[in-house]
């Protein structure tokens, strides 16, 4: 297991700031994510640059939080790089963790194929009849997920940066930094408890995706935490996380709806 801090005093003068950032990741990030995505959905109705703007806001938010956590850690004299996963792997994951990784990779392949098929069906299906009293811009089923995916070459390039950013920043925030603070506050916790805490925090951060999204991202967050604690490094979780997000680039632009249907 990673050499996590033993007590909050290890953070020294940065202890209060570390707790504040950790609490925000659990309680504030779900609210910020919900607001950000609702605004995106509203702008998508009329603004052709809504996706690029949304990607840009994501980049500012994630790198801003990551840099803030980095400054807090650099101000903590008793927390070294190994305590937050900023080191090379000290060991390979155990058989159970490797099995989880294989299952996650299998999920990536299956979900990507399913997404390609779902996108193709939505792109070619005729728009459903508008029920009486329903607004002009009602959403077809599944449109919200597909709306996030890039269409143009410029959007795809920016989305690539977003995917890499998510792999780096979210692993640093929710595995490296967050678990260090949890371990410092709660003391000597078993590894499975830390995995569970990381899973819950990461799932809540994706509350805007609904219950299914919370469950799915929570499971993925737990797997990343197990990888991190098993290797003592954020390297493998970062690479796996980035691959999961970048899989959306495998969905061909030609099968995605290019415009919102006007019903």
Proportion of residues in helical segments: 55-70%
Q: What is the β-strand count?
A: 0
Distance between the termini: 55 Å
Q: What's the story with the biggest beta sheet? A: none
Continuous helix count:
8
Principal-axes shape call: globular
Radius of gyration: 20 Å
What is the average per-residue confidence, as pLDDT, rounded to a whole number?
84
- What fraction of residues sit in β-strands? under 5%
Order of helices and strands: HHHHHHHH
- Low-confidence residue ranges: 133-144
Structural domains: how many: 1
Overview of this protein structure:
Helices cover 66% and strands 0% of the residues. With 263 residues, it is an all-alpha fold. It has one domain. The longest helix is centred in the middle third of the chain and has 34 residues. About 5% of the residues have low confidence.
Structural descriptors:
mainly alpha; 263 residues
Task: Summarize this entry quickly.
The protein is mostly helical.
Helix and strand arrangement:
Layout: H1 15-44, H2 50-74, H3 95-124, H4 143-147, H5 153-186, H6 191-205, H7 210-231, H8 235-246
Helix pairs in contact: 1-2, 1-5, 1-6, 2-5, 3-7, 5-6, 5-7, 5-8, 6-7, 7-8
